[in-house]
Each structure stands twice: as C-alpha cells, then as structure tokens.
Amino acid sequence: MFEDALARAREQDSYYQKHGKTVGPLHGIVMTLKDQFDVKGFDSTLGYCGRAFQPAQENALLVDILQDLGAIFIAKTNLPQSIMWCETENPLWGVTTNPINPDLTPGGSTGGESALLSQMGSLVGWGTDLGGSIRIPSHMMGLYGLKPSHGRLPYDRVSVSTEGQGHVPSVVGPLARSLSSLKNVTQAVIEAQPWNADPQIVPIPWRSDMFDEVQQRPLVIGLLVDDGTVRAHPPIIRVLHEVVNKLRAAGHEIVQWNSDHHAECIEIMDLYYTADGGEDIRRDVSAAGEPYIPHVDMLMKRGSAISVYDYWQLNRRKLAMQKACLAKWKTIRSPTTDRKVDILITPTMPHVSVPHRSCKWVGYTKIWNFLDSSALVLPAGQVDKSIDKPLEDQEVRAYVPRNDMDRWNWALYDPVKMHGLPVSVQIVGQRLEEEKVLGAAHR
To answer: Dihedrals φ, ψ of 440, to 5°?
Structure first.
C-alpha cells in the first residue's frame, strides 16, 4: 500500500500545482484501515490464516468515498481472530502490543489502529464496533473514537465475521488523536451522501444545527458510574467524577442514571453471539486448520445453535428491552427543570489497559451496541499512583466481589503497575445522534 500511497500523493501534488486547489476536503490526509476493510489488491483476513492470499477485487465503499475526498491510505492494521475480542491477537499476524508497555494490550478489536495512531502512524484510523471495538482500544491508548448508530456510515464491502446477522449489526467509525478529526471525517463522509450507493444507509444529512445547539446551552447529563455487574477500578471512577465536577461547575446539570435493564440486555446480546453455535467462525478456522486463540476457543464452547423459533424469541426480548430503555430516556428528567437528559456519561471499561489475554468484561460498551446508541470516547486522565487508592487501602481490601467477573476485574487492579495509563470517559446519545455526541464532547 505504501507505493500506492506515494503515487496518490504525487498525483495530488500535481493537481494542486496545476489547479491551485485541493482535490477535496481531505486532500493529503493520511489514514489507515482495520484489516477487514476491503482494499483492491490486498487481503482482508479477519485474522484467519484461511483468508490469506485472497486479495479483494474492489474497494470498500467507505474507502472509495474517502479517496474521492482526498484521503491517502498507507496501511491496514491488525485485529483478533474472528474480530470477536477486546484484544488483538491471531495465528496469522500474532499479538499486537501496547506501545506504552509491550506487556499490555492496546485493546481490540481495532487494536492495530489504536497502537499505530498512538505513535502518530496516521492522522485518522477506521475501525468497526460490534461490542466496543472502536471505543475500547481508544480508551486504552488515549484516543478519541466514535461508534455511530447502524446505518449512518457505509459498511458495504467491509468483511466481517457472522456476516448476515442483523440483530446487533457491526458499525464503522473513526479513531483519532483529536476530537476535531473525528468530527471532520464523519461530516465529510455523511456529506458525500453514501445512501446513494448503500441501501442500508439512512438518508440523514449532516445536521450542523444539532452539533451547534448542544454547545450553546447547559446540558442535562445522566451519570452512570456502575453497570451493576462489574465495578470500575478506583482511577476510572475518580476520572469520571473529575469530569462530572468540571461539567457541573460549567453550569451543566448532572442527574443519576441507573443500570436498570443492563443485565438483561447483556444476556440477550451474549445469546446472539452464539446463535449459530459458532458455525461461521468454525468454517473460517477449519479452512486452514489453524488453532483457536484462547478467547475464541471459549466463545465456541459457550453455546450451541438455536432454532429459528428461539431466535425469533430473542428478537422479541431485544425489542422489549429497547422499548424499556427508550422509556427510561423519557422518564429520567431533571428534578429542577424537568428537562429530559441530553446525553449520558459513563466509564468505557472497568479497567485501563491490562496484560495480554486478561480483557473480558465489555458490558460498559456493548450495551450501547445492543441499543444502537451513538457513543463516543475521549481521553480524560491517567492512573496516578500518588492519588488513586493503593492495594493496601481499607476499602480496596474489604471489597467483596459481586460475581466471578467482578472478582476477575478486581484482581487486575494495581495502581503502581497501571501508573500513567490513559483513562477515558464515554459519552452516549440516543440512536442516530452522532452530531449531538460530537458536539457535546466539544464542551
């Protein structure tokens, strides 16, 4: 891809010299892509050995749009086998490490992008998100990341595991080192009217009024500190409250948001993950006889295929939960002004970057995939061993885990080893409110 990128850069230089203008709003902007985006002449492996040496015959629609706008792609980056993990490891390309500390993960599944972007390897990276795969690596590497709702940005010709399932669709979104980069590339793609080429895109133009409006008035912000299943580590909670205190001081109103319905939403989503009994993943793995990475091996053993009737019942349960959560947006209001909640602010993960093969709980992110909410993460602080509760702290030592997953999470906590690692917060809007969460993040 490097030679193609250099050739395109020369073409753009010549165009500018000849015409005195750029080829488009993204002229010369260097970008990278998660492995699964099709680029003509290059593989999209999804971390499977059996998909190697099968170059794509055409570009993903998003790649064509961005190139027409002037973007230059220089590389594709690593992802986990099957994509279905919050770390980045596969038998084909190996383990992607965290540039801050190679013993730690950069997150996943868009971990190749987060590692590269953190080292200024490109200006914008493009990933996908089915349960947190843009937001988790952004959180772990101190980046900005946007998960749009399904149908806002084009997914056409982006290879994916379990392709064909529509119950909780994977979505495309950008990662970057600046918030303005997220906003600018998202706006540019939407203004290219991708709904004219992809029937799954909703024909909603870029709404500058929504982006501007949330920056011009005090907001009502719902605060979710705990998802009720896994309690976040002390630095995560500290940074979240620091952000909230600044928002309150700036005149915004903070109301408590509860975790009602979260556990059932996660339960339904986990059943969706194994609805085919792992058949889709099994076929890709068996194509080359490669081994399963441990996480995928556990996923394959988690459930058997369900009947069409049982699948329909899951869809009924999903709709019931989506209705219940929509009702919550309407009923939780400001106690002083009776205004509805504009956005939520929550943790992204219960922990920061952790040692390889230690990442498990993604409930703080995948709930918003289940609800198809617009969500964005932004860096907000770091672990600080001088102020975060030490392991010897009475509250830390006395904490009684709620369940095995909470016990696992609490065992990972070590503010000395985690010192200096990035901490983010997550901003959540309702469905198809990308402009709102981007605008709110600019506050």
So the answer is: -65, -40
pLDDT band at 443 (very low <50, low <70, confident <90, very high): confident
Q: Which residue has the tokens 């498990």?
A: 360
Distant-in-sequence, close-in-space partners of 345: CB < 8 Å, separation ≥ 6: 221, 222, 223, 224, 240, 243, 244, 247, 425, 426, 427, 428
CA terminus-to-terminus distance, the chain? 38
Query: Would strands 422-428 and 343-346 be described as parallel, antiparallel, or unpaired?
Result: antiparallel
Phi, psi of 293 (to 5 degrees): -70, 155
* β-sheet with 220-223: strand ranges across: 72-77, 30-34, 124-129, 171-176, 144-147, 375-382, 422-428, 343-346, 220-223, 253-256
At 415 the pLDDT is 98
**Residue positions annotated with a catalytic role:** 34, 109, 133
Residue bearing tokens 């928002």: 247
**Where do we find the tokens 């993943």?**
281
Name the E strands within 210-358. 220-223, 253-256, 343-346
- Bond into 109 cis (ω within 30): yes
* This prediction's pTM: 0.97
pLDDT tens for each residue of 337-350: 999 999 999 999 99
CA distance 224 to 64: 39
| Per-residue pLDDT tens digits for 194-247 | 999 999 999 999 999 999 999 999 999 999 999 999 999 999 999 999 999 999
Residue 370 pLDDT greater than 90, yes or no? yes
Residue 339 CB contacts under 8 Å (≥ 6 apart), including other chains: 220, 253, 333
Q: Which fold has domain 2-441?
A: Amidase signature (AS) enzymes (3.90.1300)
